[in-house]
Design brief:
With 45 residues, the chain is α+β, with helices and mostly antiparallel strands. It has one helix and two strands. It has one domain. Helix content is 18%, strand content 27%.
């Protein structure tokens, strides 16, 4: 299951995607890499 939180900061708004297996979804990652700023937080538990 994936959840998306939206951080509304006017022109600096961004989504936060939460869920299992998101690193395997390359289309999701590539959609944000073009903005040149991506943060990935991972936990193995």
């Amino acid at each position: 299951m994936k959840q998306t939180l939206s951080v509304a900061l006017a022109e600096r708004s961004y989504p936060i995607h939460i869920g299992a297996g998101l690193l395997d979804q390359t289309t999701l990652l590539l959609a944000h890499i073009k903005h040149k700023r991506v943060a990935i937080v991972s936990n193995t538990t």
